[in-house]
Specification:
This protein has 155 residues and is α/β, with parallel strands linked by helices. It contains two helices and seven strands, in the order H-H-E-E-E-E-E-E-E. It has a domain of 91 residues: Immunoglobulin-like (Sandwich). The strands form two sheets. A four-stranded mixed beta sheet has the order 2-7-6-4, with no helix packed on it. Bound molecules: copper (II) ion. Copper (II) ion (CU) binds next to loops.
Amino acid sequence: MRTTIIAVIVVVVLIALGLWFNANNQPEIQPLPEPLDATLSELPTGESNGVKLDGSADLEVTTENIGNHTITYSGSSFSLSSLEAKIGDTVTFVNNGSASLRVASNPHPVHSDHPEFDSGTLAPGSSWAFTFSKTGTYGFHNHLNPGAAGQITVR
Ligand SMILES: [Cu+2]
């Protein structure tokens, strides 16, 4: 009889301890972030992330253009030798040179690191956009002038 009572007490104490332990391990409820509206209203007016009201857009790369990056090719080199991007980001290469450009993955001439990263031939004035769907290091060069090179790191 006495053993039964002790056993019952032990079980009750264990259950109580378990409940207390669980209660103390509940994750704290984080307050919800401020509604987006409030954040948007704090942005300075008159700034439009490089997009003009008539629908055209500056090609200038700023930190406001998160997710969209532009790298121009002057005819001898790229405007950025290294760039950090995220999955889903789009990088647009613009050929501002007077000769054709072909952006391709390293190593030259086989382009085996990322065969899918290949612009094909870009005539002067034309551009090519690539959206990254995989993380990794994308070393690239102008296949038609391999000394011009750069690197994009996708995290
Ligand atoms: Cu090449």
